[in-house]
Design brief:
Blueprint: E1 26-29, E2 32-33, E3 47-51, E4 55-56, H1 71-78, H2 82-88, E5 94-95, H3 96-101, E6 107-109, H4 114-126, H5 130-140
Parallel strand pairs: 1-3, 2-4, 3-6
Antiparallel strand pairs: 4-5
Length: 144
């Protein structure tokens, strides 16, 4: 039986994953990033702020699910080769400190301050010319 086609506006069936954005998206992670309901959304971010208590993972395989909302290919883009393998196949979570060392997280904060860290990152971006920021995102040619 064929699956009926459903039209999803703007970002497709998974929202931010396929949306062509002209503005940076900055994510704040306090504790766990890796549950199915928000696994790919934060991976679409252009910058990250994470508390020291934050962990990043892709646990779908342990639960018998196939990670299809972008977490798989985005983690391969953002991390060295062994990072996604540990997250996908071994169900190992990355700590915020390890994610920062790998270049995945831009700013580490104390627990409870990830949002403030994300706002500080946004304020840094806002000091730049808006059209230059848009052009830089477009020239990068990457969908975060």
């Amino acid at each position: 039986m064929p699956v009926p086609s459903v039209r999803h506006p703007r970002g497709g069936e998974v929202g931010l994953v396929r949306r062509n954005r002209t503005k940076p998206l900055i994510a704040a992670v306090e504790v766990l990033c890796g549950r199915r309901r928000h696994g790919a959304g934060p991976l679409c971010a252009t910058s990250w702020s994470a508390s020291r208590a934050a962990q990043f993972g892709l646990p779908e395989v342990k639960r018998g699910l196939i990670p299809t909302t972008g977490g798989t290919f985005r983690s391969v883009r953002h991390l060295p080769p062994n990072g996604p393998a540990k997250m996908l196949l071994h169900r190992q979570f990355l700590s915020a400190e390890r994610a920062e060392r790998l270049g995945f997280v831009n700013r580490i904060t104390e627990p409870g301050d990830a949002r403030a860290g994300a706002i500080a990152l946004a304020e840094q971006v806002c000091t730049n010319a808006p059209r230059a920021v848009q052009a830089a995102l477009a020239s990068a040619g990457t969908k975060w």
